[in-house]
Structure formats: structure tokens, C-alpha cells
Amino acid sequence: MKHSTTRQTRRGRGPAHRIGRSLAFVLPVVLVLSGTLAVTRVNWSGDPADSVLAASEASSKASTRAAARAPHEVLRDRLLTELQEEDPGVALTHLQQAVDERPSLGGHCASIARSLGRAAVKVYGPTRAQSYARPVCDTAFASGVLAAHS
Q: pTM for this structure?
């Protein structure tokens, strides 16, 4: 009777059992090789120039930074440059135009105008900066001038 039970058990071992046994032998080898390859790719010298991945990491970080910049951040930076190259009046006019063209920027208008006010104080001083104030974004420019002066 024992003999017949053993035969039934062996017949139950089909292709799934053979695949499982193969994986049991192959899987550890694959894991060891992949771990070895991973260790060889690590920059152990500490010098980023020696890294195999340095160029790809740098380019991916730069593209991530460019992609991560929101439209209001780009607008703010452009307007701050205009403020320094021309005057705060031009920057405020362009801010109002940008908000009129893209209403989604309206939520950021006050913070951009405050940033312009603070920058204007640094470039022109508080009195002259305040002379450019106008009711763009609920007088946020003037509050930025005041905050930078205080």
C-alpha cells in the first residue's frame, strides 16, 4: 500500500513542480549576479566626476527643476528681472497683463506683487519704490514695499 501512495505522489509532480525546482536553483544565482552588478556601478571614490551615473543624474535633476517650475514662478522671475532692468511700473503693468491673460495666475498675483515691492526697495529705496505703487493685486506691491522698509 505504501508503494501505491508514493506513485500517486510522484505522478502529481508535473510541470509546475519542475518549474519550481528550476526557479529554486536559478533565482539565487540571478540575485547574486544582480547584486554584484549593482555594487560595481556604485561610485565608491566619492568623486561625482567618476560616477557612471553622474551625467544622467545631473541632466535628470535639471530637467526636473525646469519641469517643476510653475508658471507663476517663471512670471515672478521674469518680472523681477524687468524691475531691475527697467522700473517697477513696467513690471507691475506686465503683471496685470499676465493676470488678465491667464486668470489662473490671479491666486499668485498678490505674492508676486509683494516680491516686486521688496525688490523695488532694494533697488530704488523705500520712497522711490513707493512712488510706483498702484492698485495691482489689491495693493500688494505697496505692502511689499512696507514690509521691506520696516
A: 0.54
